[in-house]
Amino acid sequence: MKFSDIPGKTQEKEYLIEAVEKDQIPHALLISEKTGGGGLALCLAFISYLFCTDRSTDESCGECSACQKTKKLIHPDLHFAFPVIKKDNKKREDTTSSDFLNEFRELILDTPHAGISDWLRKINAEDKAPNINTTECNRMIKTLGLKTFESEYKVQIIWQAHFLGKEGNRLLKLIEEPPENTIIILITNQIKSILNTILSRCQLLRVPVFSDDEIMNYLCQRYQMEQVQAQQLAFLSNGDMSRADELAENHNVGYSEELLNWLRACYQFGQKPSILISWVDHYSKYSKNMQRSFLEYSLYFFREYYQYLFLGTDQLRLSEEEKETVQKMSKIIDVEKLEILQEGVNQLLINIRRNANIKIATMDVSISMFHALKAKSLAKSIINY
User: Between the CA of residue 345 and those of 56, 172, 274, 305, 322, what are the distances in Å?
Assistant: First the structure.
C-alpha cells in the first residue's frame, strides 16, 4: 500500500510524511474515522513510507524488500491486534489475533478499506461478540518489549481499538512510555468508546470520509465500471469505501430497474399474482449480501425521493436516469404511501438480518406494498414505466 493508492486524504498524507521527514513521529497515534473511511489503508501507506529504504520526498518506492513485506503484511516489525472470537478448540481467553492472522491478511489484501462487518463475515462471526482480550494485551506488551528485526522502528496497529473496552487500561503504561523506537497506532470508528485515559495519551488524527468523486473514480479504475453506474454506487456508499467495494461486487444487478420491477409486480398482484411470485423467487436466489444491498439501495432511493417531494431535484444524489424516475413517481406516490413503502423495506431488511425465510418474508412485505399501491390512479403509471 502506497499513499498514491489511496484517493484523496491530501492533508492527512502530508501530516504523516512530514512527521517522518522531521523525525516527529508520535509514539502513540489514534486514527479516528467513519466506517470505510480509509484509516487502515492510510496507516499501512504510512508504515510502508516509514520502513522504506529508498523513499522519495512524498512516497515509498514500493520495490525494496521492506516495501514488499509491508505490502504483503508480513514485515517482522509490523504487528497487528484486532477483535476476534473463540477459534476451534482453544479457550476464548487464550485466543488472540495471531490465531486469525491469515484470515486478516486475506481480507485486507483483497479489500484494504474493509470494516468490522466485513471482518465478522470473513470469520463467520456475524452473530458473535468479538473483543480484544487480556491475553492479547499482554502479548502486545511482551512483543513490543523485544528488539526490532529489520527496521529502525517497530509498529503495533490496534485495529477497531474500541473493542479493547476496559482492557485498554492494561496498555496505559505502554502507550504513555513505549519502548524506544516503538510506534502504537490505534484505529477506530467509535472514538467515543475509547477510554479517556487512552485518548489523553495519543495524538489524534481525524480522517474524513471519501467524497463521491473519489469513490466514483476508484470504482471506475478498479472495476472497469461505467461512470454512470459508478456514480450511483458512490452516492449509495455515502463516503464508505468498503461499502463501495461490496456494492461493486454486485454491480451486475441494476438496483434502480430492479426496484421498479418490484413495484410493478406488487401493484399487479391483485390481477396477476404470478408476476410477484416470480419476482420473489428471482430475488430469493440472490446472496444475502446482494439482498441486503438491494434493500439498502431501495431505502436510499426512497430517502432521496422524499427529499425531492419537498426540495426538487437540485440537491438529489441520484443519476439522471433515477431523477427521471423520481419525477414520474411524484405524480402518483405521495408522502403517506412512501412511508408505507419505506416501512416495508425496513422490515424486510430486519427479517433478512434475523435469518427469516426469505421467500415468506419478501412475499409478506410485498403484499403490504400492494395494498399501498392499489389506488386506481397508480395502475397505468407504474405499469408503463
Answer: 51, 45, 21, 15, 19
Question: How many Å apart are CA 24 and CA 64, to the nearest integer?
Answer: 24
H-assigned helices in 180-254: 196-199, 212-223, 227-237, 241-249
Mean per-residue pLDDT for 43-69? 95
Q: Over the stretch 52-61, which tens digit does the pLDDT of each residue have?
A: 999 998 999 9
Residue 188 to residue 29: CA distance in whole angstroms: 11
d(CA 311, CA 315): 8
Helix boundaries (H) for 145-287 = 172-176, 196-199, 212-223, 227-237, 241-249, 255-267, 273-284
Q: What is the dihedral of CA 84, 85, 91, 96, to 10 degrees?
A: -10
Cell numbers standing for residue 342: 419505506
Higher pLDDT pick, 176 / 312? 176
* Residue from 184, 156, 150, 174 nearest 80 by CA: 156
Amino acid at 66: A
Cα-atom radius of gyration of the chain, to the nearest Å? Answer: 24
Encoded amino acid at 202, one letter? C
Q: Largest Cα–Cα distance of the chain, in whole Å?
A: 77
| Grid cell of 17 as nine digits | 510524511
Grid cell digits, residue 219: 470504482
Alpha-carbon dihedral 89, 90, 92, 98, rounded to 10 degrees: -130
121 and 288 in contact (C-beta within 8 Å)?
A: no
Q: How confident is the model at residue 65 (pLDDT cuts 50, 70, 90)?
A: very high
Alpha-carbon 117 to chain mean position? 7
Give the pLDDT confidence score for residue 281 in this predicted structure.
94
Indicate the residue type of 311.
L
Average of per-residue pLDDT across 40-44:
96
Candidate from 11-20, 155-164, 226-235, 265-274 with smallest mean pLDDT: 226-235
Which is it for strands 28-32 and 78-81: parallel, antiparallel or unpaired? unpaired
φ/ψ of residue 290, rounded to 5: -70, -40
Rounded CA-CA distance 71/2 in Å is 9
Contact 250/290 with Cβ under 8 angstroms? yes
pTM reported for the whole predicted model: 0.78
Q: Across-strand partners of 185?
A: 29, 157
The predicted-structure confidence for 266-308, as pLDDT tens digits, reads as follows 988 988 999 999 999 999 988 887 888 889 888 888 888 888 8
